[in-house]
């Protein structure tokens, strides 16, 4: 083989993935065993969002499909970015050639050619989308380009039906370098494509995260959202009870966010509400277990067919022993309901718990919300609380939040930054040399 071509990409600024604020830079490295005639060397930055969906056993009007008719398969492909750069011969030589397809003889040895690409702010395919179309998700265009998703999940990693269905959608970005051999003008074949090098790029734009930073850093001014538990449980004396989460900062959650610490605005205010409670002093109810799950909903869309995948990730499951103090019961001003707060300050594990501290990857993907033209990834939190009464009867409540924007970036601000002090080891300021 006369030539070997490879890609050497400069690492991202955070050492993990590229963002939309960075420039993709690197080198195309060509090793020639002998002098070789080359027509050109080019690099392409390519990205696409593609899905495959399958209809269920029902038609669009809700009627059941004939068992003998096969299910329809839908496919959707959207080109996000397609940029190409010719690194050899140089641009000034190409202009001087004035359209000529002349090839150049390159000496043996190692040669490298620099390249760089800017990440676009908007997907290439948005121009051909029609408004209110059933073929794309609403909000996909305004959200900019989507992040990488399922780009590293390979067929040999699929071991069950759930993973297979999950793998039918992906957003992939890659760099491709191609070397085209040249031939003498007397040769019957002028040139042929000889070698291609490819490298996947993990890209997470991060624009939407930076736009929402203010929500977590500024005091909440809107009323808290009250999330009631799904079910009401009944105590032995006929008292009906349920739980409520009062949250005012649960629209967006970033990695390393504190979820239970007092003042975080997420799960720091949990109440137990009682209806028809006859006597307060006899109330004996304890919280014995708390479990927090993250529900992931991934929907693939092709044409008017949509497939949804549901995953449940357990974030926290701890045993507790918190008694509800009857003295903390208070009556609401607008009804006869009594409520008591759960005192979570005494549970150290909850006060120190940060969201996704281990930077978990679900099926190879970081945890983040996004919407592309044909893929939507959404999240809800699911909170289970187990209670026991004086007779050891167990009651469980379940609370689900609204859709939450999940980000893999962290915007944690240090509460006690280090003090700035003057170095007294020198009495004079350093001299700056220009």
UniProtKB/TrEMBL annotation:
Gene3D superfamilies: 2.60.40.640
Source domain of life: Eukaryota
Database matches in InterPro entries: Arrestin-like_C (IPR014752), Arrestin-like_N (IPR011021)
UniProt domain Arrestin-like N-terminal: residue ranges: 17-123
Pfam family, one: Arrestin_N
The protein, known as: LAMI_0F07382g1_1
Source species: Lachancea mirantina
């Amino acid at each position: 083989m006369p030539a070997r071509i490879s890609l050497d990409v400069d690492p991202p600024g955070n050492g993990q993935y590229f963002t939309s604020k960075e420039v993709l830079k690197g080198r195309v490295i060509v090793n020639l065993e002998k002098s070789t005639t080359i027509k050109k060397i080019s690099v392409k930055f390519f990205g696409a969002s593609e899905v495959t969906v399958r209809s269920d056993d029902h038609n669009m009007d809700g009627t059941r499909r004939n068992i003998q008719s096969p299910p329809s398969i839908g496919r959707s492909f959207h080109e996000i970015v397609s940029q190409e750069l010719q690194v050899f011969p140089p641009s000034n030589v190409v202009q001087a050639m004035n359209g000529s397809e002349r090839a150049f003889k390159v000496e043996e040895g190692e040669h490298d050619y620099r390249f760089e690409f800017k990440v676009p702010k908007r997907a290439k395919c948005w121009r051909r989308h029609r408004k209110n179309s059933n073929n794309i998700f609403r909000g996909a265009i305004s959200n900019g380009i989507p992040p990488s998703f399922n780009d590293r999940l390979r067929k040999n990693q699929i071991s069950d039906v759930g993973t297979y269905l999950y793998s039918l959608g992906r957003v992939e970005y890659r760099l491709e370098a191609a070397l085209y051999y040249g031939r003498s003008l007397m040769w019957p074949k002028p040139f042929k494509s000889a070698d291609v090098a490819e490298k996947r790029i993990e890209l997470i734009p991060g624009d939407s995260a930076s736009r929402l930073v203010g929500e977590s850093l500024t005091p909440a001014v809107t009323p808290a959202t009250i999330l009631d538990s799904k079910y009401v449980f009944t105590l032995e004396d006929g008292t009906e009870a349920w739980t409520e989460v009062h949250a005012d900062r649960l629209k967006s959650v970033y990695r390393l966010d504190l979820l239970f610490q007092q003042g975080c605005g997420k799960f720091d205010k949990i109440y137990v509400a009682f209806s028809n409670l006859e006597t307060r002093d006899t109330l004996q109810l304890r919280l014995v277990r708390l479990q927090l799950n993250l529900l992931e909903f991934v929907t693939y869309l092709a044409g008017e067919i949509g497939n949804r995948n549901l995953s449940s990730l357990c974030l926290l499951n701890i045993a507790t022993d918190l008694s509800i103090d009857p003295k903390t019961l208070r009556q609401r001003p607008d009804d006869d309901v009594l409520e008591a707060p759960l005192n979570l300050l005494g549970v150290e594990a909850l006060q120190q718990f940060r969201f996704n501290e281990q930077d978990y990857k679900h099926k190879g993907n970081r945890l983040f919300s996004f919407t592309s033209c044909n893929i939507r990834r959404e999240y809800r939190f699911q909170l289970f609380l187990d209670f026991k009464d004086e007779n050891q009867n167990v009651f469980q409540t379940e609370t689900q939040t609204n859709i939450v924007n999940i980000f893999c970036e962290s915007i944690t601000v240090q509460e006690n930054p280090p003090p700035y002090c003057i170095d007294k080891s020198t009495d004079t300021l350093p001299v700056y040399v220009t």
